[in-house]
């Protein structure tokens, strides 16, 4: 079964196009390094919760929204090797492809699928 990296990212609402350009650059590399698929999603119908929610999870500030994203890899081994290559790749240097969001507030993690349905 595949391996999934999941992300929740706080992004300034007025940086949507800049975020898309950044994601397209990074995502092409991630695919080059072995990912099977990537999905980057801009918040559309994301309610504020009473206790917690996506906004609080990444401490969004005035004028920010959230992006929910994931990367599907064929295995954890391919993911580990791909992420190591990405870190070393000069195309990911912030000078070449600056992050249009506060990466310190991004949450992410690797997940092992336990249920998977598809058509």
Please describe the structure with a list of short key phrases separated by commas or semicolons.
alpha+beta, 119 residues, 4 strands, Alpha-Beta Plaits
Give an account of the 3D structure:
The protein contains 3 helices and 4 strands; from the N terminus they run βαβαβαβ. The longest helix has 17 residues, at 16-32. It is globular, with a radius of gyration of 15 Å. 29% of the residues lie in helices and 26% in strands. The protein has a single domain, classed as Alpha-Beta Plaits, CATH 3.30.70.100. By secondary structure, the protein is of the alpha+beta class. Strands 2-3-1-4 form a 4-stranded antiparallel sheet.
List the helices and strands and how they pair.
Elements: E1 3-12, H1 16-32, E2 37-42, H2 54-57, E3 64-73, H3 76-88, E4 107-111
Antiparallel strand pairs: 1-3, 1-4, 2-3
Write a concise synopsis of the structure shown.
The chain is of the alpha+beta class.
Backbone shape = globular
Reported CATH architecture: 2-Layer Sandwich
How many extended strands? 4
Task: Give the strand order of the largest sheet, numbering strands 1, 2, ... along the chain.
Answer: 2-3-1-4
What is the mean pLDDT? 94
Gyration radius (Cα, Å) is 15 Å
Order of helices and strands: EHEHEHE
Number of helices: 3
- Low-confidence residue ranges: none
Amino-to-carboxy terminus distance:
16 Å
Q: Strand share of the residues?
A: 25-35%
Give me the secondary-structure category.
alpha+beta
Largest sheet geometry: 4 strands, antiparallel
At CATH level 3, the topology is Alpha-Beta Plaits
**Percentage of residues assigned to helices:** 25-40%
CATH class: Alpha Beta
Number of domains: 1
